[in-house]
Amino acid sequence: MVDNVIFDLCGVLVDWRPRLALEGLFPADEIDDMFADDDHCGFMYFDDLHDRGTDYVDLLPDYENEYGPHLAAMMRAYADHVERTLTGPMPGMPQLVADLRRQGVRVWGLTNWGRDTWPIMASRLPRLIGMLDDVVVSGRDGDGAAKPDREFFDLALARFGVQRTSTLFVDDSPYNVDGATAAGLQALRFTCADETRCWLADHALL
Predict the structure, then answer these.
(1) pTM of the model
(2) How distant, in Å, are the alpha carbons of 48, 85, 160 from that of 80?
(3) Which residues have CB under 8 Å from 164's CB, separation 6+?
(4) Hey, what's the signal peptide range on this chain (predicted)?
(5) What is the mean pLDDT of each run of 10 residues along the chain (206 residues)?
(6) Assigned CATH class of 4-16+86-203
(7) Contact 137/157 with Cβ under 8 angstroms?
(8) How far apart are CA 96 and CA 43, in angstroms?
């Protein structure tokens, strides 16, 4: 039985497209390198540090020391244009959240996101975030923890006051889904609103 649903934000509730921060400012091949899967430019590694509470003002000098001035200029541009990456809600998700709430299901948010850039997210999507009962933000609330760390899930469960065995966690990252499962939650890999809605309907939540 599920009586609470915790949603990831970026890639689940929020359409987050990191390339958009740099498009028009740098050549396409350099942007490809910055976000390459092998992370040879260190974006994902430093983004994780940012999600865990290191503000950009402290992060950027260390990034420049490791990767040099040109890549640092790209990372600085990303930090300066985070708002471009947030294009709006994921299709179908605001209605899904509203439908859950109408059924009496409490709905929460759990996101890996920086402390210094959370006000940008909150101001870009106030109606969507306002639909949630509460949101735990790694950079603001995690004290160094973030998904998929068990302690971050434990923190969220305690903050929300919910039971792990009756709580569903929805995330697009398989690592975060595995982390939630290891922490004792029910977990669902997000692909789209329609498939999520079908799962919820099959489990009598909608």
Answers:
(1) 0.96
(2) 17, 11, 32
(3) 153, 157, 183, 184, 185
(4) none
(5) 96 98 98 98 98 98 98 98 98 98 97 98 97 98 98 98 96 98 98 97 93
(6) alpha beta
(7) no
(8) 32
